[in-house]
Amino acid sequence: MSDRYDAVVIGAGPAGRGAAGQLASEGLRVAACERELVGGECPYWACIPSKALLRPPEARADARRAAGLGEPEQRYAEIAAYRDELVRHLDDSAPAEALEKKGIDLYRGVARIAGAGRVEVGDHTLETERILIACGTVSSVPAIDGLEQAGYWTNREATTLSEIPESVVVLGGGPVGVELSQMLRRFGAEVTLIQASGHLLAREDARVGELLAEALREDGIDVRAATRAASVAREQDGRRTVSLEGGGEVSAAELLVAIGRTPRTDELGLEAAGIEPGERGEIAVDERCRAGEGIWAIGDVTGTMPFTHVASYQARVACADILGREARTDYAAIPRVVFCDPEIAAVGLSADDARGQGIDVATSRLDLVDAIARPITYEQEPRGQELEIVADRERGVLVGAWAVAPLAGEWIHQAAMAIKLRAPLEILRDTVSQFPTYSEGFTEAVRALEV
After folding, report:
1. pLDDT, tens digit, for every residue of 288-331?
2. What is d(CA 247, CA 233) in angstroms, rounded to the nearest whole number?
3. With 80 as the cut, is the pLDDT of residue 2 above it?
4. In the chain, fewer beta carbons within 10 Å around the N or the C end?
């Protein structure tokens, strides 16, 4: 059975669902193909459930640190029930119906490119001049001796827990590993966090990783940086024992693998489209999100920046290109947030990355507790809270910033907007921030730049 469409979208996660809706609203006949749940990883097993689980223990810690408050009771069963409501009990009938109401035909199953302008899904062959690949990623699983036999969790098991385990070893100190480690610890599990690189959040400034490690250790997490797992064994009582390179071992009731994600392109039939994936399976795209003749790729599958907001952004750019409108991607001012406590936010380049690009760098780093009033009004005995901005001395503009502090994911957008607009430093210096807010730290840091 075959049918013809103006566009076929492979994957109905944030990127694919958004793109299908945009194209359908412009009068195109659109098909969307989804192998799992309409909505993708983010609303069911990642962004939404993880943030819902992180917030209650964060609020509890806020109360403990605020003057004159006690520690509220924490009831995990009620928290898990609220999470289940948010993820619709893993039922995608509502978003699937929403697609169909927009006139989009939904095909369930594994979609494969079968040749120029042809996509196969089960017994269906869809013909089109425009294919949008938005099939996302899956959790990366390292080749560690004994891991498969011992059994492990990924983010999916960790964000759908009905009961908190007694102990967990977490492999990976990136955003997912950090968030889930703190969440599990604050719900009562003993947690050991193992990170292969020298500091947590290896893609960020080393100081960010140092401040984060201090905060996690204060929570009682055993943080082990520059450490690798050599093998895993499952004991008779079900516990997992992780042997470490260089000697030593750690043991826990559960093992969580959070070392990153891999583009889901192995069954996509890219060879039939003449597309050669990258080393990790990613699909290279140009600034219009074009991957080949009549083919666009959007979202995590591109390996560009694995964020839901970037996936939605790429969907807008690709749709504009399909519709004959001018649009090009610009990733210079994309915010990156880790929703731990304290929150970590960054945008643009780190100082080291900027120097690596040949930029004449000027930096300004502030201890926010010393520089502004907000930390002492926010909590008693504020913990390590810092902010750094990175400027291009020659052009007189910002190129990066990072912050470790409460609510950093909200006020980092002040720096993101400055980078996006290439706002001159003299204008930023003349900006007035509300007192007392964390945003004051940004303007104080700009004024402290030696440029």
Report:
1. 999 999 999 999 999 999 999 999 999 999 999 999 999 999 99
2. 15
3. no
4. N
Instruction: Give the contacts of 11 (CB within 8 A, at least 6 positions apart).
Output: 33, 34, 40, 111, 133, 134, 135, 136, 299, 301
Q: What span, in angstroms and rounded, lies between the C-alpha atoms of 139 and 155?
A: 8
pLDDT of residue 338 exceeding 60, the answer is: yes
Q: Which domain holds residue 343?
A: 335-448
- Domain assignment present for residue 67? The answer is no
Task: Give 392-437 pLDDT, tens digit per residue.
Answer: 999 999 999 999 999 999 999 999 999 999 999 999 999 999 999 9
Same domain, 403 and 297: no
Residue 438 lies in a domain: yes
- Nearest to residue 395, comparing CAs of 420, 425, 417, 416? 425
Q: Report the distance separating Cα 72 and Cα 324, nearest Å.
A: 55
For 80, half-sphere exposure in the C-beta direction (CA atoms, 13 angstrom radius) is 13
The verdict on 130 and 30 lying in the same domain is yes
Beta bridge partners of 31: 8, 105
Write the CB contacts of 183 (distance below 8 Å, at least 6 apart in sequence).
50, 53, 54, 57, 158
For 184-209, what is each residue's pLDDT tens digit? 999 999 999 999 999 999 999 999 99
Q: Are 278 and 131 found together in one domain?
A: yes
155/249 same-domain check:
yes
pLDDT of 451: 83
The two most distant CA atoms of the chain are separated, in Å, by 69
Residue 384 has pLDDT above 90, yes or no: no
User: Containing H/E element for 204?
Assistant: none
Q: How far apart are CA 23 and CA 32, in angstroms?
A: 11
How many whole angstroms separate alpha carbon 299 and alpha carbon 129?
A: 20
Q: What is the CA radius of gyration of the chain?
A: 23
- Whether residues 33 and 17 share a domain: the answer is yes
Q: Is the domain of 132 the same as that of 14?
A: yes
DSSP string, 342-407: S-EEEEE--HHHHHHTT--EEEEEEEHHHH-SHHHHHSSS----EEEEEEETTTTEEEEEEEESTT
Q: How far apart are CA 301 and CA 403, in angstroms?
A: 28
Residue 113 placed within a domain: yes
Distance of alpha carbon 190 from the chain centroid: 24
Nearest alpha-carbon partner for 404 in 447, 314, 342: 342
192 membership: H or E segment, kind and range = strand 190-194
Q: Are residues 280 and 135 in the same domain?
A: yes
**pLDDT of the residue at 1:** 56
Counted domains in the chain: 3
Domain boundary (259, 278, 302) is at: 259
